[in-house]
Amino acid sequence: ERTCSGLSHRNGAKRNMATPACSSGVRAIGYAGATHRGSRDSAYPRACVPASVRHVNREETLQLLSRSRRCKSACVVQATGSVSLREDLFGSKEPLFTDCRSSKVSIVGSGQVGLACAYALINQATCRQIVLHDIAPKMDRLEAEVADLLHGAEFVDSLDVVATADFADTADSDIVIIPAGARQNEGESRLALVARNVAIFEDIIPKIAAASPDAKLLILTNPCDIMTHVALRLSGFPSNRVIGSGTALDTSRFRSLLAHKLAVDTGSVHGMVLGEHGDSSVVLWSQVMVGGVRLKDVHPQLGTGDAEEWLRTLHADVVAAAGRIIKRKGYTNWALGLAVNAIVKIIIRDERHILPLSVPAKGRYGITQDVHLSLPAMLGSDGVQEIVQVSLSEEEVASLRESARILAEVQDTIVYKE
Length: 418
Prior knowledge:
Blueprint: E1 2-4, E2 7-9, E3 26-29, E4 47-50, H1 58-68, H2 85-90, E5 104-108, H3 112-123, E6 129-133, H4 139-150, E7 161-164, E8 175-178, H5 194-211, E9 216-219, H6 224-235, E10 242-244, H7 248-262, E11 269-270, E12 273-274, E13 282-283, E14 289-290, E15 293-294, H8 295-298, H9 309-312, H10 314-329, H11 334-348, E16 353-360, E17 372-380, E18 383-387, H12 394-411
């Protein structure tokens, strides 16, 4: 329960009308579905507004948020003086609140990854409409896949799925997921895929951008970090709207393996894998926690050569996980589909969740190269809202810089069409 100068807000309570004024002469208001900190069904936190206001809609709430910062008892995070927790955490003072009603999602590339993304979006009722795009020779199979999905309409929420080879059908998408690209072969490094996939992106990215100029692009194509950088250049979009899935899946793999070894629920394990989505990724051992306990405090050997053997090989197991699956079934798709659904849901619902995603890294942690790699990013309805400034050990900073150097070396070999 939170209080505002004597006015009580209980987290989770739903309100439709004004409540008694607080000592500053304002009333705390809300609307159905809102909670103090924002809910999964609503992007808008409570705010303090003039006492004359009785009922507001969402648009009015947005306008009132800026006025609420003048109220000391306003229930939003704000900077006080020249130094604030928000500024220390994100490097910026003012939170951004934007309207979001987006629900059209296009998937460009209908291979196993694209279909896994579509299935996850449908199964969890994440969006209103899904457009599956691929090249004309694949339309017969894609139309059959869509028909198969539509036959399950009775068992899910409203279902609208379209198969197309025309980028015009993706027009006005709110999010475009891009798994399109050459498949990674067994034993092939993600970085070895660059030349083939850059050529594909030079064809599709300008068409996607022209059809949906306000969309957020979610890049899955490997090597993910480099292809995110390529998509940013080719689309002309602002960097907050071109996002790579990065190490979101690596982090999930890491937490899952650690939780399994410790026989605890995955939700009780907290930690991140940053850097390249690939061989030079970096586990933040200094930040790993289980049930609120920082593991470095109780097991100082963590992340060193003196740790138990399974801990020493845990990061290597995470890096090799995709390769082992590809060797046995030819591709990875289901876990990535779940990860993508989570990312899309966060954006559509403006949930302000923090995930390790591929974002511009230049100027952070001493990185001088113009590269994308995974850092803790807060996602909202406008894409990447903030980058969390994590305190890293010297070894972790050095590893992150090395990851950037490796990506820059490969990136510098790219030759674009004139």
